[in-house]
Amino acid sequence: MTTPVESQLSDLQLKVYDLIRLAGWEGKTTDEVEAELKLTHQSCSARVNELAAMKLIERRGARRKTRAGRGAFIYVLHGLQGAEDRLKKDESDAK
Predict the structure, then answer these.
(1) Cβ–Cβ < 8 Å for 51, 15
(2) What are the pLDDT digits (tens) for 34-77?
(3) What's the structural domain count of the chain?
(4) What residue numbers bound the domain in which 90 lies?
(5) Can you give the CATH number for the domain in which 67 is found?
(6) Is the pTM of this model over 0.90?
């Protein structure tokens, strides 16, 4: 089922979005998206930045190594919470 926002994305934006969405909390780095979709860095980075500007994806606080060994931001769906964050929220709500 396509949401109204997803129907407004270009084919390439949708491929990048779906790859990040399906990764769940583990997310994807731009480097991982480039490799899996066989994109150039410029094309992939631009699509990731567009999706982030639309508030469809966001950076996690963590980083993961790229193929070149550098630390890269991990992107997940906007508003997605990890299990630890949900537990902390549940505990604070219970007080």
Answers:
(1) no
(2) 999 999 999 999 999 999 999 999 999 899 999 999 999 999 99
(3) 1
(4) 4-94
(5) 1.10.10.10
(6) no
